[in-house]
Design brief:
This protein is mainly β. The chain has 1 helix and 4 strands; from the N terminus they run E-E-E-E-H.
């Protein structure tokens, strides 16, 4: 495992279809979000989808 420090925020598009937590279709890169800082983004597993489930 390689730990990294996030420096940039990227926007991606996804398909909502997932099997056992794995997306069936690839994520698509949209753009780098220079208007959003890494502290503005929830950590993996702590976003809206986790709160709704």
């Amino acid at each position: 495992m390689v730990l990294v420090r996030p420096d940039l925020v990227a926007e991606v598009s996804t398909d909502r279809t997932a099997d056992l937590g794995v997306f069936r279709h690839p994520l698509r890169f949209q753009r780098i979000r220079l208007d959003v800082g890494v502290d503005d983004v929830p950590r993996f597993g702590q976003g809206r989808a986790a709160a709704a489930g």
